[in-house]
Amino acid sequence: MRNPYVIQETAESARAVFPLFQYGSLVMKEMHVEMHPHLFGGKIHGISSWLSVAGSTGFTTLSGLAPSFLLESK
Fold first, then answer.
1. H/E element holding 71?
2. Of all helices (H) and strands (E), which one includes residue 17?
3. What are 2-37's pLDDT values in tens digits?
4. Tens digits of residue pLDDT in 29-67
5. DSSP secondary structure code for residue 13 in this structure
6. Quick check: 30 and 17 in contact, CB under 8 A?
7. β-pairing, 64-66 with 25-40?
8. Which of 70, 10, 66, 18 is CA-nearest to residue 44?
9. H/E run at residue 64
10. How far, in Å, CA of 62 to CA of 51, rounded?
11. d(CA 49, CA 51)
C-alpha cells in the first residue's frame, strides 16, 4: 500500500462485578470493562476505562469512565 493505514483488532470486552451505590443502597452489578490505552511514541502513557452495564443495549446512567491504574513490577 502506498498510503498510511491503521490495523485494529476487536476483542470481546471483559466482564467483572463492581459495587455501585444505587437508590441509597450498595449493590453489586456485572459490568463490561473496556480499556482504551493512550499511546505515544510506541509506549503506553495512560489508559481510559469505560464501564457499562452487562446486557444493556441502550443508554444508561450506569455507564461511564472509571479510574485506571498502570501497575509496574519492581
1. none
2. strand 14-22
3. 888 888 888 777 888 988 888 899 999 888 888 888
4. 888 888 888 888 888 888 888 888 876 666 667 778 888
5. P
6. yes
7. unpaired
8. 70
9. strand 64-66
10. 8
11. 7
Give 18-53 as a DSSP string. EEEEETTEEEEEEEEEEEEEEEETTEEEEEEEEEEE
What is this structure's pTM?
0.58
34-37, long-range: CB within 8 Å, 24+ apart, which pairs? 35/68
Length of the chain: 74
- Match 498510511 to its residue by C-alpha cell: 4
User: What is the spatial distance between Cα 32 and Cα 55, in angstroms, rounded to a whole number?
Assistant: 9
Cell of 8: 485494529
What is the distance in angstroms between the CA of the first residue and the CA of the last residue of the chain?
42
Three cell numbers at 45? 502513557
